[in-house]
Design brief:
The chain has eleven helices and no strands. Helix 6 crosses helix 9. The chain has one domain. Helix content is about 55%, strand content about 0%. By secondary structure, the protein is mostly helical.
């Protein structure tokens, strides 16, 4: 994994650990947490993280998948957004608790495509990793004039937040597949009991995490 990718991954992991908000649903809005278990859990197996499903069409799904993977890139032994099913998390959220952001995403993705085609004459998904990073950096710095609403920084910040949620929230919401995010930071989930050894250990928790729902 490139040094740039490793730095981005380290930043996001440190940001999550620093919040102290690794208690599953605490990373997702209360509107999602208030859904019933049936409403939240049933769709999570409806499609893989590679494909669109509930809200995104094929092209938008591919773009969001590529964008979030550049925000949280995977590598050998180190899960990224693709491995965690971040696309699935965002797709389900936009069809439910985040439905008020549907137009935000539609407009943002349209403007992202316009920026990429004007700058590189290609869609975001067809750019190599270095150019994708350049595009993301332009958004982060507010240097994408094709964006009006949402503003480029607002679009970037929202996708970064949703990527972190999809990586580290309780798997019942469609992301954090196979607890890869929790395992990455050593978060135990809702263990029914901790042994004396667990409590005294200074090492990361190693048993399989347990969902709190």
């Amino acid at each position: 994994m490139a040094e740039h990718d490793a730095g981005r991954r380290e930043f996001l992991v440190r940001a999550i650990v620093g919040t102290g908000a690794l208690a599953g649903a605490e990373l997702v809005p209360s509107a999602i947490a208030q859904n019933t278990a049936h409403e939240a859990a049933a769709p999570t197996t409806a499609h893989s993280s590679d494909h669109h499903g509930t809200f995104f069409n094929h092209d938008d799904a591919a773009t969001v998948a590529a964008f979030t993977e550049r925000l949280m890139p995977g590598a050998a032994g180190k899960p990224g957004a693709h491995d965690a099913g971040v696309l699935n998390y965002i797709d389900l959220a936009l069809a439910g608790a985040y439905s008020d952001l549907q137009d935000f995403y539609r407009r943002g993705l349209t403007q992202l495509d316009a920026h990429c085609r004007k700058t590189y004459n290609e869609a975001f998904i067809r750019l190599d990793a270095a150019r994708q990073d350049d595009v993301i950096r332009a958004l982060e710095e507010g240097k994408a004039p094709e964006f009006t609403w949402p503003a480029p920084q607002e679009f970037f910040n929202t996708l970064r937040t949703h990527t972190m949620e999809g990586m580290f929230a309780d798997p019942i919401y469609g992301g954090n597949k196979d607890y890869v995010g929790w395992k990455l930071v050593g978060f135990p989930g809702a263990q029914p009991i901790f042994t004396r050894t667990d409590m005294e250990s200074k090492q990361a928790f190693t048993r399989v995490p347990i969902t709190g729902v």
